[in-house]
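Build the 3D complex.
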Amino acid sequence: ELKVEQNPLFLSMQEGKNYTIYCNYSTTSDRLYWYRQDPGKSLESLFVLLSNGAVKQEGRLMASLDTKARLSTLHITAAVHDLSATYFCAVDSTDDKIIFGKGTRLHILP
Amino acid sequence: NAGVTQTPKFRILKIGQSMTLQCAQDMNHNYMYWYRQDPGMGLKLIYYSVGAGITDKGEVPNGYNVSRSTTEDFPLRLELAAPSQTSVYFCASQTLGAEAFFGQGTRLTVV
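Done.
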């Protein structure tokens, strides 16, 4: 059964700093997704990673996928307050379920 | 540009009552999903469907039922509501290997 683990679960950081969120998963998959959720809102897609070595960047966020290590990272460069949100990774299982991690609650201090 | 539409947005149920959460998408997506999100937690998969007429259980299916008679609609049925089903419910749809689109959620309270 597919398990998806994110760490850290909570992260408080200062503006201008860099940080990385990690997403590990337990069974083979080459489809991984990152989503953002603001408080009280729905989920918004950030990245779709579909192969080993895939790297996607949008603004201050960059995501990568290593399918051999079953690991994805979401890197934040020079954080700004607007990036405060909860970030989820989700993984496609072989039976088409999409399983989410518990989320990383990111709080960026001005 | 409707995307994924969920109704209702809010609902209060009494213990033992039943209700159906509606979900409709207009993007011709084959894959549809129902998740629940408890306060401060991640999303748990309740049921999913890979096409009309096909449904399957997710991580937490007990107490729920679904049907998928058309590509567009994927209703979630709660029978005999219990306080443990108090949660926010999200419906999502996607094409395989692409981003999922989420509805705005249904906030359900069982008292």
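The longest strand of chain A covers residues 85-92.
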